[in-house]
Each structure stands twice: as structure tokens, then as C-alpha cells.
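Researcher: We plan to redesign the surface later, but first we want a full-length starting point. C-alpha cells attached.
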């Protein structure tokens, strides 16, 4: 992978991680268009590095919330911050289980399966359309909601299903406040990303890479783009603008499904 490809993929990841259009799906489409020939393990590793960058941008945007949660935890009191942290932990369980037991099978999905990605983008479009029709409330995420949203996050491991789109849509359809749904969606993925990076470091996967420069370029691009996209997405969800992304996902999904069958 050359430096320009890494830069493009980093920007794609930074924008699409927070916008409800499936970052993993767009990365696979971008890799296919750029002619990426990486083996599944390397391709998935690059995707994880880019997700790590956007996880850091999430911490920057929500630094006050994260600090407040940590302060609440270390006070060892049963308060709102502790309850919120517990809900985050509950939401992590489904994705963590799938990642632990099915990681080898997941790698096979990150090999440029364009038709599959297109089908999942069409599914994402349907979710976003339904969520945009829901009325806004002032309800906070409950413990049972956290588990259901966590299941949606686990399903969104599939390339083409937007993680933010699936989790925010599920939360909104459960009747939760839209701004609260967006914040919960962005914060719930951070521990999973850091956990994945820690696992790869301990297993030696990251130290086996020969060229770190493309990873660094992609990381920086994803981090900077993520800062802008995260702030923008919160405003979009609050103002019920998800239908535009539903249309986008539908169009891109249809193109992805049809493209492999077009004559050369």
C-alpha cells in the first residue's frame, strides 16, 4: 500500500466512522477501487488501526464526558456516571464475544466482497430511514437498551452495515433521546477498539509489520477527519437529517451490487 492510498483510506475512515454510511464497507469499496491486494489479515489490521484513530478522536470530542465518567468511577459511588459506565460495559459484551470466537471468520469478509457490502449498505439505508421517522424524546438509555444496542453493534461488524447507523438507529427506535443516542453510540465503541489494539500488541501482530509509514499516514488522516465528522454527526442526528444518508447508502449499495456484473 502506497502513501497516497493510505491517506485516502484514512480520510474515508475518519469521515465514515461517524457518518452512518459504514466505515468498514467504504474502506472495502475504496480498497477495491484502489486495487488493494493486501492479504485478509493485513487488510483487517489496517482497518483496526484506522478505527483506533477515530476512537482517539471520539475521546477528544467527548473528553469532558469521559473525564466525568472516570471521576465518578473512582469516587466508588452509585451515581449517574457509574450507571452510564455499566451500560457501556453491557453494550460491549455482544461484540466482544463475536470478536473473540469468530475473528478468523470475520477476516474472510474483509476481502473485497463488493456484492455483500452493497447488500449490507442497502440494509443500513432501511435502518436510517426508519430512525429518521422516529420522534425525539428525553429518555435515557436503559440497561436493557444497552444490551440491544450492543447486539446491533455486534451485527455491524459486518462490512457494509454502519456501526454508528445501526447503534444510533436502534437506540432511537427504542425511544431514546437522539443526542443521547449519538453520544452513547460513539462512546460504546472506544473500549472495544482499545481492547483490540491491546490484543494485537500482546500477540505481536502489530510488531510484525515491515512498513509503518502508511499506517501512520492513515492514522493521522483518520484522526483529523474524525474530529470534524463526529461533531457534524451529533448535529445531524439531533436535527433528523438521517434520510439523506439513507438515500446515499441505498444508491452506493445498489451500485456495489450491480458493479461486478457489468461487462468489462
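Model: Full-length starting sequence:
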Amino acid at each position: 500500500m502506497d502513501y497516497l492510498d493510505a491517506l485516502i483510506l484514512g480520510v474515508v475512515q475518519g469521515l465514515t466512522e461517524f457518518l452512518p454510511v459504514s466505515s468498514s464497507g467504504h474502506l472495502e469499496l475504496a480498497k477495491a477501487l484502489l486495487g488493494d491486494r493486501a492479504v485478509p489479515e493485513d487488510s483487517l489490521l489496517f482497518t483496526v488501526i484506522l478505527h483506533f484513530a477515530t476512537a482517539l478522536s471520539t475521546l477528544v470530542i467527548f473528553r469532558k464526558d469521559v473525564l466525568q465518567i472516570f471521576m465518578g468511577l473512582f469516587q466508588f459511588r452509585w451515581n449517574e456516571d457509574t450507571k452510564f459506565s455499566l451500560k457501556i460495559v453491557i453494550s460491549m459484551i455482544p461484540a466482544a464475544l463475536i470478536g473473540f470466537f469468530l475473528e478468523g471468520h470475520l477476516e474472510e469478509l474483509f476481502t473485497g466482497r463488493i456484492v455483500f457490502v452493497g447488500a449490507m449498505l442497502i440494509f443500513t439505508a432501511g435502518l436510517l430511514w426508519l430512525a429518521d421517522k422516529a420522534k425525539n424524546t428525553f429518555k435515557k438509555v436503559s440497561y436493557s437498551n444497552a444490551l440491544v444496542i450492543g447486539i446491533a453493534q455486534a451485527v455491524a461488524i459486518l462490512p457494509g452495515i454502519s456501526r454508528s447507523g445501526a447503534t444510533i438507529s436502534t437506540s432511537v427506535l427504542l425511544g431514546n433521546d437522539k443526542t443521547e443516542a449519538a453520544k452513547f453510540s460513539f462512546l460504546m465503541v472506544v473500549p472495544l477498539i482499545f481492547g483490540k489494539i491491546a490484543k494485537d500488541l500482546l500477540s505481536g501482530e502489530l510488531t510484525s509489520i515491515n512498513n509503518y509509514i502508511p499506517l501512520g499516514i492513515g492514522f493521522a488522516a483518520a484522526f483529523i477527519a474524525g474530529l470534524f465528522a463526529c461533531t457534524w454527526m451529533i448535529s445531524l442526528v439531533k436535527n433528523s437529517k438521517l434520510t439523506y444518508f439513507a438515500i446515499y447508502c441505498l444508491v452506493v449499495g445498489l451500485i456495489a451490487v450491480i458493479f461486478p456484473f457489468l461487462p468489462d
